[in-house]
Amino acid sequence: MALSKFVHISIMAVSKFVHLNHGRIKICSYLNHGHIKVCSYLNHGRIKVCSYLNHGRIEICSYLNHGHIKVCSYLNHGRIKVCSYLNHGHIKVCSYLNHGRIKVCSYLNHGRIEICSYLNHGHIKVCSYLNHGHIKVCSYLNHGRIKVCSYLNHGRIDVCSYLNHGHIKVCSYLNHGRIEICSYLNHGRIKVCSYLNHGHIKVCSYLNHGRIKLCSYLNHGRIKVCSYLNHGRIKVCSYLNHGRIDVCSYLNHGHIKVCSYLNHGRIEICSYLNHGRIKLCSYLNHGRIKVCSYLNHGRIDVCSYLNHGHIKVCSYLNHGRIDVCSYLNHGRIKVCSYLNHGHIKVCSYLNHGRIKVCSYLNHGHIDVCSYLNHGRIDVCSYLNHGRIKLYSYLNHGHIKVCSYLNHGRIKVCSYLNHGRIEICSYLNHGRIEVCNN
Questions:
Q1: How would you label 323-354 residue by residue, b for 16+ Cβ within 10 Å and e otherwise?
Q2: pLDDT tens across 101-142, in order?
Q3: Please, which residues have CB within 8 angstroms of residue 77's CB and are 6 or more apart in sequence?
Q4: Reduced 3-state DSSP string for the chain
Q5: What gap in Å lies between CA 263 and CA 251, rounded to an integer?
């Protein structure tokens, strides 16, 4: 008997339907006690549809479309057992459930994991995944707290955001000595945000009660985008168009708060007013700030800027006082000169554990001069109406030199070497008053 294009075989409770069309199987549906046992069929090497049931469970679902799997959804008592499938070495979607928990989610896209989100009673247990040695995203929760977030990107951590009762406990991470992003919250406020990328700051955006307090950032001397709103007011507006900012106009009760913008690394014009005060004026020219002049009741509030990790000039005034002047050049402070009614309040700075220069004045008096060089003080010279007030320094428990003057007299000279005074010579109008050694 000639083979027909349609064959129907019925054995017991098993029904099989096999259809042939030019070497393709069009339909293959069959039943065994309400279970589908096997469903394999071909259309130019592609499987079109594969749906089958075993006691409400799907046992196996494997099928191919040019090496791509189109859909893979199946159930075992409300749990998904296994979901592995391939699209040119990429996994497109992997979502599955076990009593509201996701057990395992591992999948690959050219050595990268695209998405990994899963839940265990509102807790995320483990989230580890790789993108060429980079971890892209790691966000997870335990009773509103994030327990651990450690991950690596060629020695760089890309994102680290986590919460503990609205506070972030720890945020430390490294990118070849650069910190990429540091954003975190404490009662709606950000406590600390300090980070560096080759002397550039990448992104610093954060919120305090619906207001953004500070947004300063740099990308190769360009500002990328920072636009945001506070009660219908724009606090900061900095943006870029081929290295130029075309328009920067915005209003806060008729006042402009901040206006910073860039044209080929130069700022062309920066003029703005707030009750006759300029609040902030920061701008860049090839990593240098050319001019920074601004007024707040005769006070300059903040003037901080960078030139290849060096601060060139930092001069500013607050009622004739400079409040803070701190800056760094390869771990050395180059210049620190500032005035408070003729007094310098604090001058502390470091060069390889040594202080190079410490000179400052208080009505012709120097109040304090303390500094260290490998446990030794190298030079300490200072004057008070021609008198030296205090001179103490140490070299391995020895005082090396102590010479000072009061109207041609030395008042006190005491120093020690293993409990002995080595040399004590001093003069009062050509007389030695006391010499104990």
A1: eebebeeeeebeebebeeeeebbebebeeeee
A2: 333 444 333 333 333 443 334 333 334 433 333 333 343 333
A3: 56, 57
A4: CCCCCEEEEEECCEEEEEEEECCEECCCCCEECCECCCCCCCECCECCCCCCCECCECCCCCCCECCECCCCCCCECCECCCCCCCECCECCCCCCCECCECCCCCCCECCECCCCCCCECCECCCCCCCECCECCCCCCCECCECCCCCCCECCECCCCCCCECCECCCCCCCECCECCCCCCCECCECCCCCCCECCECCCCCCCECCECCCCCCCECCECCEEEEEECCEEEEEEECECCECCCCCCCECCECCECCCCECCECCCCCCCECCECCECCCCECCECCCCCCCECCECCCCCCCECCECCCCCCCECCECCCCCCCECCECCCCCCCECCECCCCCCCECCECCCCCCCECCECCCCCCCECCECCCCCCCECCECCCCCCCECCECCCCCCCECCECCCCCCCECCECCCCCCCECCECCCCCC
A5: 22
Query: If you search the block for the tokens 């003057």, which residue do you land on?
Result: 405
The answer to whether the beta carbons of residues 423 and 437 sit under 8 Å apart is: yes
Q: Summarize pLDDT for 243-301 with one digit per residue, the tens.
A: 333 334 333 333 333 333 333 333 333 433 334 333 333 333 333 333 333 333 433 33
Instruction: Report the b/e string of 34-72 with b at 16+ CB within 10 A.
Output: eebeebebeeeeebeebebeeeeebeebebeeeeebeeb
Using a CB cutoff of 8 Å and minimum separation of 24, what contacts does 261-265 make?
Answer: 261/223, 262/221, 262/222, 262/223, 262/238, 265/221, 265/222
